[in-house]
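User: Last request for today: this protein with magnesium ion, please.
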Amino acid sequence: MADQSPKKHEFQAEVKQVLDIVIHSLYTDKQVFIRELVSNASDALEKLRYLQLTEKDIYDESLPLEINIRTDDKENTVTIEDHGVGMTEEELVENLGTIAHSGSKAFLRAVEESGGVSENLIGQFGVGFYSVFMAAESVEVCTHNWEKDGKSLLWKSDGGGGYEIEAARGERRGTKIIVRLKEDAKEFSDAERVKEVLTQYSSFVQFPIMLNGEQINKIQPIWMRSRGEISDEEYNEFYKFQADAFDDPLFRLHFSSEAPLEINALVFVPGENPERWGFGKTDPGVSLYCKKILIDSKPEGLLPDWLRFLKGVVDSPDLPLNISRETMQDSALAKKIGQVITGRFIKMLEDESKKDPGKYEEFYKQFAIYVKEGVASDFKNGAQLAKLLRFESSATEKGALTTLDDYVSRMKEGQDEVYYLYSPGRDMIEAGPHLEAFRARGLEVLYLYEPVDEFVMTSLGKFEGKTLVSADNADIELGAGAARPGEDALAEADAKDLCEWIKETLGDSVNEVGVSGRLVDSPAIALNADKFMTPSMRRMMKAVKKDADIKYSVNLEINPGHKLIKNLPALKGKDPETARLVVEQIFDNALIAAGYLEDPRSMVDRLYRILERVAEK
Ligand code: ADP
Ligand code: MG
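Assistant: Here's the final one, the structure of the complex with magnesium ion:
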């Protein structure tokens, strides 16, 4: 037999940091640890119930699947015991000595930003177990994993630098956690106090919770009950239980369907975007059940990726009970279930956005990125989802949002394209030259502020049969409008000559130079001659490949009615060098307005040279 003496282990550095915060935080309600331990016990029982479907040899097979909580106010302890899967020695080290994901850094940042440990943070960052040290002087974890040849083990720690693991004797399957309470947490050795903490929460646990031998919860899955008998509070409590969250959900969808598939689903939009802390991509949050048995708590492939922010439960008796998680992922049945939920969910958002636009916009502020991801990536639902997009536009007030549907309803007679412009801000779009022609003709332009927006529009391609086009596109035929050159504009032939000279001067940096029918107030405009390589697409590609030289192709159009342009032919006769500098500068200004120019240095040099010449005169 191997060495029987306790093995000492150090906590991983991140765990130490987290423990330090959790233990010394003054803001936190200590009681949260009971919830976390019960939730872990429940998870362990769910895992065991799943194993019972697939494994034959389970240790202590006949033990009931329940959670036992015992309080002892003489010893100052509270003990939480389950007969779930238990842990091996490696699992003890892995699960109770490290933090799996890179979550601790994000956790620490979130704590800093929100000015303390809130309950919400503990659940979200998967540091639940460590919350026990808010109340514990020391903790003992006695465990035996589910395998027949597993070992009885004891894990001990006082939350300082490390923990010990030693062999134990005669443990039954599962995990028993003995919490020795600190002076200021004595209250949790009192049964009434513990019961109080568990009241709302325990009714969602799918296993009996026994408090000192007496069952304190009724077991009836909320998603199988009828909507009419469930209060908002109950729904919200369930969300918190299921998502390990402490906020209230923004929206919920509870439905059952009979055909073509039998489904009971209860899903929620969280109160806050789970990816807002830069925590990276979250795992899917809608658990898959079959006849009330948990099949997979994070099923990949059930819902499309963009719906990973949803939390909740889907139960379908049509799934084969012994479906493995691996086959589930590419199961056509699971996809069909997912499609039903996705369709219903989009419909629900649409209804809500009409019923209460303000609330929908609150949702959109936080979750727009997922909607956009869906529009760009979900071929089945993209078109429907596009109705959920919101933009400012030339027809809205600053800050007010409009829909593509509304845009279409405002389209002018004969207009068959939907126009948009990307720029980081409203002021920049409205001050730039691209809007002029559209404004002059009374054509509405959507304002896109996020770099991904343009990509989303390009992926979508069309809305209700109307092509979506960037207003800086050189191919747009606007026809005659208010932007007709005035009486004293350059004559056609002179303008043509000027264009040729400009093209010669600028060389290969410009694709074509022509006379513009678009411009009113600006001397010139740069238009995108390559539909694919839009300025924001180029920026996105550059962000991926830092020093790549990604070419673009632009046309320059000049305004023959603008004073600066009108004076050019004479200047080029008198002072060709200054004329050349002026043309180069006009081109750079047009590139800036269109979002192409990234390195302004050479332009600044040129500006000085122009200024020198002006000052000489
Ligand atoms: P999370 O529950 O979010 O994974 P926790 O800190 O609450 O994070 O728990 C860490 C891990 O420890 C769990 O994922 C699980 O693997 C293990 N664990 C905790 N409690 C138990 C238990 N009662 N039975 C079996 N494993 C447990
Ligand atoms: Mg947990």
